């Protein structure tokens, strides 16, 4: 648990916030046709991959065709989830006034209804980022991923829960806004979630019908192979989305916060919390595209409604601003971040892992303060 008030003086925090506001203004002023062309080309590529993948599954009796079809369909689902769905529903292209790019109209190719996701992710997560007991992405209601979460024998299953969440990630996201953990504890009632449940049933039925009934039946005797291909593509998308999202939020140095220390926070303090509570993943251009540029999670948390293609362009400037104010800028390759997350999942499964153990970055801060 970090002490936001100890990072910078109030004057430094506000100057820090103004620099990031100025950066945001420059990005917004520069948005234009290049951004529209980019997302439209990504959408065309995604649709082409889906058509190609489904067409190849009609020749699924030939193993290379089946593998190629699954590969194309997997890439299609990854692009739809990460670079298109996630970013469009953040309102990153609402300024275009194009109905096809409207955050309120877009529906993605997963079982999670877009309306539910916009509430649990756009509002809850991005407003209360890493505030324990406010941001439901901290542990997703099933994991102990932070020392501020009190240990319970239930958490001995942490590695199992994390594995299941990775394999079934779209279903976990679907249930996220239902707050099942609070329903089980009696903190909420089923009647409070009538609309949420209705949207879940409607969307999940449609997705199951499409991937596991309609398209398999269209391939006739190859239906079992097509069903297996669709399931594999969904699995690939689930594992990829889980990996990118967890690596951006839960590596070792990422910090959490209390409701008390974030009460009445200013714009500058909100920016500071995003920096301390996020991590980037290094990689090449294709890697960033397939991650929906959430490999730049720091920039995304700072500017969630700015087209994600802009994040690599401004990452250097954001890092320079952090260095100017002596703030950490957490980043590393995927394998390093994944290993860090895996160790946390195992560590916090065990008793005695420290209900109030400070994060490494917090310990470093405290040592510096004592030395001063």
Automatic annotation (TrEMBL):
Pfam families: FA_desaturase (PF00487). InterPro entries: FA_desaturase_dom (IPR005804), Fatty_acid_desaturase (IPR012171). Residues 65-331 form the Fatty acid desaturase domain. This is Fatty acid desaturase family protein. It comes from Prauserella oleivorans.
């Amino acid at each position: 648990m970090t002490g936001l008030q100890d990072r910078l003086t109030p004057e430094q925090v506000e100057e820090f916030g103004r620099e990031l506001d100025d950066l945001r203004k420059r990005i917004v002023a520069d948005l234009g046709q290049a951004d529209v062309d980019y997302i439209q080309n990504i959408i065309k590529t995604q649709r082409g991959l889906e058509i190609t993948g489904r067409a190849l599954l009609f020749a699924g009796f030939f193993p290379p065709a089946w593998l190629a079809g699954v590969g194309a369909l997997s890439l299609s689902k990854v692009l739809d989830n990460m670079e298109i769905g996630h970013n469009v529903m953040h309102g990153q292209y609402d300024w275009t006034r194009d109905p096809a790019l409207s955050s309120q109209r877009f529906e993605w190719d997963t079982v999670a209804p877009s309306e539910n996701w916009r509430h649990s992710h756009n509002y809850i997560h991005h407003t209360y980022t890493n505030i324990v007991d406010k941001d439901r992405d901290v542990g997703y209601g099933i994991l102990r991923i932070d020392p501020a979460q009190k240990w319970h024998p239930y958490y001995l299953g942490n590695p199992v829960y994390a594995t299941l969440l990775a394999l079934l990630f779209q279903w976990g996201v679907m249930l996220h806004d239902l707050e099942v953990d609070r329903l089980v504890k009696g903190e909420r009632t089923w009647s409070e979630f009538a609309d949420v449940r209705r949207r879940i049933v409607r969307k999940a039925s449609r997705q199951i019908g499409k991937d596991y009934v309609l398209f398999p039946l269209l391939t006739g005797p190859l239906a079992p192979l097509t069903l297996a291909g669709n399931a594999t593509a969904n699995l690939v998308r689930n594992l990829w989305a889980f990996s990118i999202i967890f690596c951006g939020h839960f590596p070792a140095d990422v910090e959490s916060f209390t409701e008390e220390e974030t009460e009445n926070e200013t714009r500058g303090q909100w920016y500071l919390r995003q920096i301390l509570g996020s991590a980037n993943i290094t990689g090449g251009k294709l890697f960033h595209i397939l991650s929906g540029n959430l490999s730049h999670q720091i920039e995304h948390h700072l500017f969630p409604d700015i087209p994600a293609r802009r994040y690599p362009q401004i990452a250097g400037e954001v890092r320079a601003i952090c260095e100017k104010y002596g703030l950490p800028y957490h980043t590393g390759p995927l394998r390093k971040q994944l290993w860090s997350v895996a160790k946390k999942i195992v560590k916090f499964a065990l008793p005695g892992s420290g209900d109030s153990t400070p994060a490494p970055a917090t310990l470093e801060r405290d040592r510096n303060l004592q030395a001063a």
